[in-house]
TrEMBL record:
Gene3D superfamilies listed in its UniProt record: Chitobiase/beta-hexosaminidase domain 2-like (3.30.379.10), Glycosidases (3.20.20.80)
Residue ranges crossing the lipid bilayer per the database entry: 6-24
Protein name: Beta-hexosaminidase
Similarity-based family: Belongs to the glycosyl hydrolase 20 family.
Organism annotation: Dictyocaulus viviparus (Bovine lungworm)
Database matches in InterPro entries: Beta_hexosaminidase_sua/sub, GH, Glyco_hydro_20_cat, Hex-like_dom2, HEX_eukaryotic_N
Catalytic site positions: 360 (proton donor)
Length: 559
């Protein structure tokens, strides 16, 4: 079936669904808006007139940037895939509506980086449209806004474009989604589709939690055993940013250490090879999306067992061996391994941020460090006594030494425990994920920024928690699982100075994978993540004006 026909069918279903479900406390259909921009722009003035348009009559002209692959690919995608989801009978007349795109800076051959401007101006009139931006990335955001101005007039069976003047830019530099490909493998096509929808919501960061306890699907040709199929890992799959690896699996294929994914992945088919990763990175680049990989250390490392001696032997209260899930910091060879491994990672991922985890180490300390005689002797040699926090500090000092000596400079991101429990190194970024109330979350952000560190917030936006209804607009109340608060959570809603609030980089909506896979990730993410996107893009004082129906309409468009 042709792609446009599929899109048309889904579009019609969405319109039908909206038309029969309006009575659940929502605005009446004749009050619904058409051709509105999502997220809400910083400055927008809609015109009173609309222009009839049809497929084949619109073109983008890129002027001096006519050879820019980023602009050309986006122009093609919007004209052929997104602006006109189903065919209409249009008069033949050729192109007579031109969108001129003027970009000041040259077309980047590389990838978007932190701090790149996404600001743009868009003017749409009856006669044509113009986009002005400093960077290509701003132009990409403007093209998305233009596509959202095109709507279908069902009474007249025609497409129309709404006239408008916009000056827009994001409130926060980090507006992201975290996916977890360790607990359940997520196919490349599904990841790409989420990148498409992220671009529609002007989100710019994919946090890829690649590996965890359950599997190691990242393939390293030099260490193939790391992703080799492991039956025990497969049986643990349901016991349980790119969050690439975790205890469950290691799906990342490392060219230097291929054994990691050979032993740590669920199967040889459930891995991400270097070519697959590069394909996803390029797909994200065209859409102005950065990809931050996460390799969680020193805990959640059960799937790293493909590297001999990397993990500490662990024991239960009867001193019987248990599942190893904690890095062994007593061996210098293990830090040399990390140096080689992360050298390969930074050569694969061009992103300047590198997420190194650091969460929930306390869950594994008793079995793996306190009951391990070799670790206890090492602690005595280092004069740590029985204080495992000092051993943690030792590990993080050594890890940061590895990062500081990588061939390409990287800024480390850690989960908040490294700030709370350890000796944080200057320049680290801390990722807030804990807090049973909004006050708890904001107190943590306040504390982190008061010490001069940057913060990223995810605690408000655990989208793997689900409930019935339009939970994206629930007000703040109750405990974390029942507290959706997606729209009402502001990352800077704490009593700090303006200097502190400037240290908040934004937020990332998390979709953990214990019960999420390729079949349900999209329905759980959207439109709920659209509320997060608007909170992080739009002006603080205006975002509470959103209506639930606006999110419904947005969802029908992005589907």
């Amino acid at each position: 079936m042709h792609t446009n026909l599929i899109i048309s069918f889904i579009y019609l279903l969405c319109n039908l669904a909206v038309s029969i479900s309006w009575y659940y406390g929502r605005d009446e259909p004749d009050r619904w808006s058409v051709g509105e921009i999502w997220p809400l722009p910083q400055h927008v003035k809609y015109g009173k007139r609309n222009r009839t348009v049809s497929p084949g009559m619109i073109s983008f002209e890129f002027g001096e940037r006519k050879d820019c692959d980023i602009l050309l690919m986006n122009g093609k995608n919007y004209l052929q895939k997104w602006m006109f989801p189903f065919p209409v009978h249009a008069k033949k007349g050729g192109i007579n509506y031109v969108v001129t795109v003027n970009v000041t800076e040259s077309c980047p051959s590389g990838f978007p980086q932190h701090g790149d401007s996404e600001e743009y101006k868009l003017r749409v009139s009856i006669d044509g449209a113009s986009i002005t931006s400093q960077t290509v990335w701003g132009a990409v955001r403007a093209m998305e806004s233009f596509s959202q101005l095109i709507f279908y007039d069902q009474k007249k069976s025609k497409y129309k474009v709404r006239t408008v003047e916009i000056h827009d830019y994001p409130r926060f530099p980090i507006r992201g989604i975290m996916i977890d490909t360790s607990r359940h493998y997520i196919s490349t096509n599904v990841i790409k589709r989420q990148l498409d929808i992220m671009a529609m919501n002007k989100m710019n960061v994919l946090h890829w939690h690649l590996v965890d306890t359950e599997s190691f699907p990242y393939v390293s040709p030099a260490f193939p055993q790391l992703s080799k199929i492991d039956i025990m890992a497969m049986n643990k799959m349901n016991v349980l940013h790119w969050h690439l690896v975790d205890t469950e699996s290691f799906p990342y294929v490392s060219t230097v250490f291929p054994q990691l994914s050979k032993i740590g992945a669920y199967s040889p088919n459930h891995v991400y090879t270097p070519d697959t990763v590069r394909d996803i990175l390029q797909f994200a680049r065209i859409r102005g999306i950065r990809v931050i990989p996460e390799f969680d250390l020193p805990g959640h490392t059960g799937s790293w067992r493909g590297q001999p001696g990397l993990l500490t032997e662990c024991f239960d209260e009867k001193l019987k061996p248990t599942y190893p899930n904690l890095f062994d910091p007593s061996k210098e060879d293990n830090f040399q391994f990390l140096s080689k491994f992360f050298t390969e990672v930074v050569n694969t991922f061009p992103e300047e941020f590198l997420h190194l985890g650091g969460d929930e180490v306390d869950q594994f300390i008793e079995e793996c460090w306190e009951r391990n005689e070799k670790i206890q002797k090492f602690m005595e040699q280092k004069s740590f006594g029985n204080n495992t926090t000092l051993l943690e500090n030792y590990f993080f000092d050594k890890l940061m030494n590895v990062v500081d000596n990588l061939p390409s400079k990287r800024k480390a991101i850690f989960w908040q425990e490294v700030f709370d429990n350890n000796k944080p190194k200057k320049g680290s970024i801390f990722h807030v994920w804990k807090g049973s109330t909004h006050e708890d979350i904001m107190n943590e952000v306040d504390l982190i920024t008061s010490k001069g560190f940057n913060a990223i917030v995810s605690a408000c936006w655990y989208l793997n928690y689900i409930k019935y209804g339009a939970d994206w607009k629930d007000e703040i109340a109750g405990s974390a699982p029942s507290n959706s608060r997606y729209y009402y959570c502001d990352p800077t809603a704490f009593n700090g100075t303006e200097v502190q609030k400037a240290l908040v980089l934004g937020g990332i909506a998390a979709m953990w994978g214990e019960f999420v896979d390729s079949t349900n990730i999209e329905s759980r993410l959207w439109p709920r993540a659209s509320a997060v996107a608007e909170r992080l893009w739009s002006p603080e004082e205006r975002t509470l004006e959103v209506s639930g129906m606006k999110a419904h309409i947005s969802n029908c468009v992005i589907i």
